[in-house]
Write a structure and sequence with these properties.
The chain contains 24 helices and 19 strands. The two termini are 37 Å apart. Helices cover 41% and strands 18% of the residues. Strands 2-3-1-9-8-11 form a 6-stranded antiparallel β-sheet.
Length: 618
């Protein structure tokens, strides 16, 4: 994994802009701590920071290769990601006459583009964001993987295009101001910590959407979609579906274990992480690769303060021990205390360039730091709940009927937290309703489906395209801030396409959430783990955390120079702080973000405004 940046400009000679390009590229150093490089021509400048995973001795970027049969026509690539079908592509390209200088997937991707052009993306199995410059055409082509595991942002100003793996690369350009307009503020205060697909929050900045391509040349900028979910009939029953899911999971896990550096898995003791860990451990045994290392996160004194509730029914600790013993893994438990979590809130903002999921981001940031000491690649269970229907809102009638994003139903609370001026400017209820309407309108439909089936298909679509990106963003930014590459097997597009079209009755085989996944993992996991109720990523339950973030936020609001003051209803926040128990167990976002996370999120917004010196273009 890596960090990429670029600058295309028809009105400037970019060979004279090496210093600016270096500054943009260096913002990606934490994503790529092993090496860096730049490439400049008259109208194109590309930068790259490398995290070496495959063929560390070779594969330096930007990588340059000539066209087939035309040495004068060059293609230059900067690439962030990992291809899991590298060998198949390499074999096909060899049959077509290509010769390879490295064993890395970067060269395979570049030669795939030279051979098939933009259509190469349809052949890729992996996670990626890349840009390729063609010298003869003076044309840039960019693409992002189907589910958006790897990030890519851009800013288009007429004759100029800037891009980067993270917003900070674009913000490092001297002509770009750190501005946010009314729509950006609505994303922060109404949608956040999620984002509307394609929205960059920063004024003038956009995100290349998952499954999309961008072409930029002298005729302008063009966007296209090469992949989207399609509604198709599926008649597979439970037995056929379980077998298909099992085979797809086995295949994708084995593909994603390929690495020339140490690999581990993240283990929570739940269905998703335990299933992936069991498949990985089995592959390690078969191939004689030695014991698998596993990692989990917890918090000091969490067992003393844990209280079960609908969104988090039990603690992970005993289940982690159960699975580690069962699979004979070398397990590492990483624990953090409240002061560390509070201090890391600001570092998490710097990693994301935006306010995020508060202590849930901060803990993953710290967790990644510790994992990186023993591994460079980790396998993680993100996306299973979106794809298989595991979240509570798939199964609770009031949330299915909520007529809004079911992970963000506290619209009244959010509105009350805003200053009257900001509420009038961004119209939070209307903004949320319009974003929800747009998402529902996109949902593919299948002729002949009844109302109940359409409702569940819509819920799955909302989760895959609106909620899952929030968790993938979080995973990418917090882990890559420490040069840790995380792979997410449940995001294999073949698996997603298949499960998306399974009837809801098959997905819930046995009358259980994620029932078909449980059935697919029969014989792979112990019975008790196989049927454990869902428990999300662990958060701290220590009341000291609530006290710390509440007191910090109140202190900030007491400062007349606090940039939050014109944007929020300080009296409402103080009232909540005086009685924080009144909603501390009712999530205002997702499953985990309740009272303490609300105060922490506002602290992150305050830090973001101050550190980035955000100008409000309203």
């Amino acid at each position: 994994m890596c960090g990429i940046v670029g600058w295309i400009d028809w009105n400037r000679n970019l060979t004279r802009q090496a210093e600016t390009l270096e500054r943009m590229t260096e913002t990606m150093e934490r994503r790529g701590p092993d090496a860096g490089g730049t490439w400049l021509s008259t109208h194109c400048a590309l930068g790259h920071r490398r995290l070496s995973v495959i063929d560390p001795a070779n594969g330096a970027q930007p990588m340059v290769r000539p066209s087939k049969g035309n040495e004068d026509h060059q293609h230059v690539i900067v690439y962030n990601g990992e291809l899991y079908n590298t060998q198949e592509l390499r074999d096909e390209l060899r049959r077509r006459g290509y010769r390879f200088r490295t064993s890395c997937d970067t060269e395979v991707l570049l030669l795939s583009f030279i051979e098939w052009g933009p259509a190469c993306v349809e052949r890729l199995n992996g996670i990626f964001a890349f840009a390729i410059w063609s010298t003869e055409r003076e044309q840039l082509f960019m693409a992002r993987d189907r589910l958006g595991v790897k990030p890519l942002f851009y800013r288009h100003d007429g004759d100029r295009l800037l891009f980067g793996s993270e917003p900070k690369a674009i913000l490092a350009h001297p002509d770009v101001r750190a501005e946010v307009d009314a729509e950006g503020l609505a994303e922060i205060f109404v949608i956040g910590p999620a984002r509307t697909p394609g929205h960059g929050v920063w004024r003038g900045m956009a995100e290349l959407k998952p499954g999309c391509c961008l072409t930029f040349d002298r005729s302008g900028l063009r966007l296209s979609t090469y992949w989207r979910l399609e509604a198709k009939p599926c008649t597979d029953g439970e037995a056929e579906a379980a077998e298909r899911v099992r085979e797809l999971l086995k295949d994708t896990v084995r593909r994603q274990l390929v690495s020339d550096v140490p690999v581990c898995t993240l283990l929570s003791g739940g269905l998703d992480s335990s299933g992936l860990t069991a498949l990985a451990a089995g592959y390690y045994r078969e191939t004689g690769r030695g014991p698998l290392h596993t990692y989990s996160v917890d918090y000091v004194d969490n067992e003393r303060h844990f209280r079960a509730h609908a969104f988090q029914p039990d603690a992970d600790g005993p289940w982690i021990a159960r699975m580690s013993d069962h699979l004979d893994t070398v397990h590492h438990t990483v624990r953090f205390d409240t002061p560390e979590l509070v201090e890391a809130l600001e570092a998490a903002v710097l990693a994301r360039d935006l306010p995020g999921m508060a202590d849930i981001d901060a803990s993953l940031y710290l967790f990644s730091r510790e994992i990186k000491k023993g591994a460079t690649v980790a396998i993680s269970g993100e996306a299973a709940d979106e794809i298989f229907g595991g979240y509570p809102w798939f199964h609770r009638e009031e949330l299915l009927r909520a007529d809004t994003f079911p992970w963000s139903t506290a619209t009244e609370l959010r509105t009350e937290l805003l200053s009257p001026d900001l509420a009038r400017l961004i119209r939070p209820r209307e903004y949320l309703a319009e974003r929800y309407r747009q998402a529902v309108a996109e949902t593919p439909e299948l002729d002949g489906e009844d109302k109940a089936a359409r409702r569940m298909r819509r819920m799955a679509y909302l989760n895959i395209t609106r909620f899952m990106p929030t968790l993938l963003d979080r995973k990418d930014r917090m882990t890559m801030a420490w040069g840790l590459e995380v792979r997410v097997p449940f995001c294999d597009h073949r698996l997603v396409e298949y499960v998306w079209n399974l009837p809801w009755s098959v997905k819930t085989a046995g009358g259980r959430e994620k029932g078909i996944l449980r059935r697919a993992l029969e014989g792979v996991l112990p019975e008790d783990v196989l049927y454990r109720k869902k428990s999300p990523y662990p958060k701290t339950h220590n009341p000291n955390y609530l006290t710390a973030v509440r007191d910090r936020l109140l202190a900030r609001l007491d400062d007349p120079s606090c940039p939050l003051l014109p944007l929020v209803n300080a009296a409402k926040i103080r009232a909540l702080a005086a009685n924080p128990e009144a909603g501390s167990h009712l999530p205002w976002f997702g499953q985990l973000m309740s009272g303490p996370q609300l105060f922490a999120y506002l602290l992150q917004v305050d830090f973001w405004l101050r550190h980035y010196r955000v100008s409000l273009a309203v």
